[in-house]
Give the backbone structure.
Amino acid sequence: VMLVESGGGLVQPGESLKLSCVASGFTFSNYHMSWYRQAPGKERELVSVINTIGVRLNYVDSVKGRFIASRDNAKNTAYLQMNNLKPEDTAVYYCQAISGANTYWGQGTQVIVSS
């Protein structure tokens, strides 16, 4: 079982990034997908949840209107489109797959927003 995030990097405020999370080793379409982030010195925070058929269930208030979660079950991939990035979005971003008692995590991808 693997979840591999990619797409992070260093960007300036106002720019965009699209994170990807590629899944393998399990039936991706049966799992809800979540994006979390953890900033230095802070607890891990839930950013978004998207269910098995692509319905978004939750966004943390600070990213509403800027971040869009999506998934492509044919490609076993979840995405997080991040627009109008702010310095406070700086964090390591993780994807999580969850179904019943099974939970899998990716290794994270670093996002730094700085001028």
Summary: The longest strand covers residues 91-99. The CA atoms of residues 24 and 96 lie 13 Å apart. The chain has no helices and eleven strands. The chain has a mean pLDDT of 96.
